[in-house]
Write a structure and sequence with these properties.
By secondary structure, the protein is mainly β. The protein has one helix and eight strands, in the order αββββββββ. An eight-stranded antiparallel β-sheet has the order 1-2-3-4-5-6-7-8, with helices on one face.
C-alpha cells in the first residue's frame, strides 16, 4: 500500500495544480479559450518484459487541461496514474507521470499532441502470501523522462463536450515501459 501512496499522492497534487493553473491561464491573460477533462489511456505493451511469469497491460487514468493561444495551437498540462488490466495475481504495479502538453490543430476535429514530462514506476512480484505476511521481490522501480506524442480525432457530442480518440506512443527513458497507446 505504501508503494501505491508514493505514486498516487504526487500525481493527485500535480493534477490539482495543473487544473488550477489552466483556469488561471484562461482568465484574461490573452488566451482565446480553455478546455480540459479526464483521460483514460490503454497501453498495448504487456509487462512480461519485467518477468516472464507476470502479465498485465497498464491503464492510465488522469486529466489534461489546455489554454488555446491561437487558432491552431494549445498549450497546457496533464498527468495520470497507472494500474494494470488483466494482471497476473502475483504482480503489483504503480506508475504516475505528468508534464507539459502541446497540441497543434490540423482541423476542428483532428490534432497532434505532444506531452513532455516525467514520472515514476514500480513493479513487484509477490513471492508468497500467507494471509499474515506478504513477501515481494522488487523487479524494477525508478523515475523516467517522458515523450508522449499522439494523433487524435474529436467527436463532438454537444457544444460543451467532445470525446477524443487517439493513437499515441508512450516513450519514457525506461525502454521496458515503451508502448503504443
Amino acid at each position: 500500500k505504501l508503494l501505491h501512496m508514493r505514486v498516487w499522492i504526487p500525481t493527485i497534487v500535480v493534477l490539482v495544480c495543473l487544473c488550477d493553473a489552466s483556469n488561471l491561464m484562461a482568465e484574461g491573460t490573452g488566451f482565446t479559450g480553455a478546455r480540459g477533462g479526464p483521460i483514460i489511456e490503454y497501453h498495448f505493451a504487456n509487462l512480461s518484459s519485467f518477468d516472464s511469469q507476470v502479465s498485465g497491460n497498464p491503464i492510465v487514468v488522469g486529466g489534461m487541461g489546455f489554454g488555446q493561444i491561437s487558432k491552431t495551437f494549445r498549450i497546457g498540462g496533464g498527468g495520470g496514474g497507472g494500474f494494470l488490466m488483466n494482471a497476473s495475481e502475483n504482480l503489483e504495479f504503480a506508475m504516475g507521470y505528468g508534464g507539459l502538453v502541446f497540441e497543434y490543430l490540423f482541423t476542428s476535429w483532428f490534432n497532434a499532441r505532444l506531452m513532455v514530462g516525467g514520472g515514476g514506476y514500480a513493479v513487484q512480484k509477490v513471492v508468497s502470501d500467507t494471509g499474515v505476511d506478504i513477501v515481494v521481490r522488487k523487479l524494477a522501480s525508478g523515475g523516467f523522462f517522458l515523450i508522449n506524442p499522439s494523433f487524435n480525432g474529436e467527436i463532438k457530442v454537444s457544444n460543451w463536450m467532445r470525446i477524443v480518440v487517439g493513437l499515441g506512443f508512450f516513450v519514457p527513458t525506461v525502454s521496458r515501459l515503451h508502448s503504443t497507446t
